[in-house]
Amino acid sequence: MNSKTFLIRPENALIYVSLLVLPAITYQSVFATEGRFELEPIEIIGRTLSAESEQRHNYTPGPSTTATSLPLSIKDTPQAVSVITSQQIRDQALTTSGEILHQAPGVSMTRRDSNRFAYATRGYGISTYQFDGLMTPIQGFWNFGDTDWDSAIYDRIEVVRGATGLLTGAGDPSASVNFIRKKPLPEFAGQISATTGSHDKRRVTADVSSPFDQQGRTAGRLILAHDQHGTHVSGLTHEKDTLYGVINTYLDSGTDITMGLEYQHNQTQGMGAGFPLFYADGGLANFGRSASNNTDWSRFYNETTRAFFDINHYLDNDWRLRAAFSHDDGNYGLTYLFRSGFPDRTTGEGMGAYFAQYRGDRTRQDMHLTADGSFQMLNRYHELAFGLVHTRDKLDMRIALPSGTSPSIGRYYNGKGEAVTEPEWGLLSSVDDSHLTQTGAYVVTRLSLSDPLHLVLGTRLSNWKLDQTYYGEVRQYEYKNELTPYAGLVYDFSPNFSTYLSYTDIFQTQNRRAENGSLLDPIVGRNYEFGIKATLGDDLDANFALFRSEQDNLGEAIPGGVVNGMPDTQAYRPTKGAKVEGVEAEIIGTLVDGWNISGSYTLAKPRNMHGERINTLHPEQQVKLFTTYRLPGDWNKLQIGGGIRWQSGIYSDTRGPKGVIRVHQDSYTLTDVMARYTFNPQLSAQLNINNLFDTSYYEQVGFYSQGWWGAPRNLNLSLSYRF
């Protein structure tokens, strides 16, 4: 087998060595010169793969490129970065990408209906997502399941809080989320898992990874997942099938090629909105937690196929060239009845009805060309990265309404509507035919001003264009040559402590629409951040951040306002002078051998120009803590864990039968516990109990005057076999 020798400089040792998963490494010695540690040449034999958290078996994050495109450790990144690792995903039995995201520090979720969720942090909604570093537009207006992928295919997620316009083109001051897919492992490995649980939960996953040659230069991985379950909501069931295959090969020329395919089919029977919050007399409804607003024939599905390839070429001068491409095909279907209004307390009559059948198709291409490496200037080594990003997103949504007279919806009583006949549907007609194009070019450098002081500077040039025919009206939106600067200063007090300052501009296009259906103008503003990061042990990190952002054109929900022609879609108006100030603290990693911890406290206070609270459906404060411990001695086959999620109160000023009414959800705490018993290296069993004390709380308050109860106590029991 051929080998290759790389000269790794001290500044880059952590970066490059940690980005390699190696069957064999040989090294000579480490020696000190003039107070610095230098490495002699290291001979690396094997395939180069990205650092995978599933091989570390703890909560400690590795290097991250999500914030700046440079492969920096979290300690050297001038922004708040959090990572949910493969081990934490497994310990908490998180089965969807949305569930993983909800565990990240400061991230909150509010539900819109049975299939749409909204995530926010630092006071604002999250709309910037990446998959393996490729910026991917998410259709917030139409749900194609982009944030509801099965967790079986992900190694980890990285969440960079604050504005990230340098890489994404949209300097959203909330966060950018990067979903990192699993890659082939250096040696043969396989696992089969089966889960059963509350609400007829049934889940099966199979995961096999194998090298294809004796040298281990080419390997593949196949993951299959099937998940079906009922819910605490009457008549609502979900079913999901996922297929993921990936091949990685490393060529003698120093080129690493990854190709993969994802397929997901989601099906929801009994799809529906929340239950009405009020009776017709103005009193607050007291429906139980199984309350629903659906029918037995209402249904939703999305089907997505995504093909991708990623080519990395490593030059002899430590530079890397990357070309990545992704192509998506999506199909969407929704057939449902939306009950509006408020039922009579005694008779259950008086609610209105909106019958609709939607069908949609989407194609999307994402391309990313980058180059990154180091250079020498003034006798010091520095890092530099260039990037070109291009995205095309084509969407065609159609609607069919009932032909002839709509069926009677009968009464709505005790949190459930009477049976309704499915109508005969008319012909499909276009409601949203749009073509979105985004292009961006960026450059970023990390300059070593002195041994303890580094300056990160970058800028991005972005173009954004949307051609749209919306309910027959032709519209065009275009923004050219938008410049997004980025600056960060990092000072190392010691090898274990650093502090940073960062600044970036905000430019964020919006999916939010005015009452006439037009898109709101992009959000513009500034983001400032100061933080301290510490490495408290070999595998334990702590982070603290203060932040402030200022925004104009931020969309604010109009109480009772809906988009013309779409009675189930919220309308918004632009606001000026919005700002958010807050603080974050996080500790994550390994306290002692066998004891993992992930804990955080976040405070974010979003205010409008009058000092009034905005985005009130998301909490201002959150505490998240989850920890696991493997018992010592004769009990070391048993691992136990648990955690809490606390959030402060939320509210909504929503339209009621007697005018606008403020509906509250007070602060609440959820407690989760787990236990895993490892019978032998191959076989293990795990029990998870969520919401242990059966706390009642709203996941939705006031979205079209409706509510949704959070899940009551539930449990999952899984059995895993490794081979």
From TrEMBL:
GO terms for cellular component: cell outer membrane. It is a multi-pass membrane protein. Keywords: Cell outer membrane, Ion transport, Iron, Iron transport, Membrane, Receptor, Signal, TonB box, Transmembrane, Transmembrane beta strand, Transport. A motif (TonB C-terminal box) lies at residues 706-723. Residues 74-174 form the TonB-dependent receptor plug domain. Pfam families: Plug, TonB_dep_Rec_b-barrel. One of its GO terms (molecular function) is siderophore uptake transmembrane transporter activity. Gene3D superfamilies: TonB-dependent receptor, beta-barrel domain, TonB-dependent receptor, plug domain. The keyword Heme does not apply. Its main location: membrane. PROSITE patterns: TONB_DEPENDENT_REC_2, TONB_DEPENDENT_REC_3. GO terms for biological process: siderophore transport. It is found in: Cell outer membrane. InterPro entries: Beta-barrel_TonB, Beta-barrel_TonB_sf, Plug_dom, Plug_dom_sf, TonB-dep_rcpt-like, TonB_rcpt_CS, TonB_sidphr_rcpt. It comes from the Bacteria. Residues 263-692 form the TonB-dependent receptor-like beta-barrel domain. Belongs to the TonB-dependent receptor family. PANTHER family: FERRICHROME IRON RECEPTOR-RELATED (PTHR32552), HYDROXAMATE SIDEROPHORE RECEPTOR FHUE (PTHR32552:SF74). This is TonB-dependent siderophore receptor. It comes from Nitrincola tibetensis.
